[in-house]
User: Fold Protoporphyrinogen IX oxidase from Aerosakkonema funiforme FACHB-1375.
Amino acid sequence: MAYLWYKAFHLIGIVVWFAGLFYLVRLFVYHVEADAQPEPARTILTQQYQIMEKRLYNLITTPGMAVTVVMAIGLLTTEPDVLKSGWLHFKLALVAVLIAYHFYCGRLIKQLAENRCNWSSQQLRGLNEVPTVILVGIVLLAVFKQSLPIDTTILGIIGMIIAMVVIIQFYAKKRQENSTTSLAQKQQ
Assistant:
């Protein structure tokens, strides 16, 4: 019965953690784009984004990560033999990368607050896709375990990354065209 409780709260923690990570970096995008706004909008938006980023990171995302990790440890205590499985080693490696990403986002919050962030909104849009790729890998490993078709998975993930890059580039081009059209209309 303990296994089921650990698993349930592990899944809840994952959902909360990823929801926070997805939204957090989106806030970074808006935060960086606020610098292009005239005053007083720039200051108002920047202050609001700083509050939202800190609250999201400290009150939702970090607790979600903590619940995920603690419940995973609980799961491993109920089935310690699973630690011998190669698929789990890969999954734990992806989780370690995700935890590093999480703390890097905390570092970006501080850099944005100190106006020292060198990331463009375009680069942050790309960074926002990192947890998606990691999530796909983790879920596939958790579902397929040792029967995961590695070649197909790698090709699928590479295809997904290429599609993300193309979509982000297309979106950037579209935004640029809209900005140019809007500026031309204002000048008329």
The chain has one domain: 2-148.
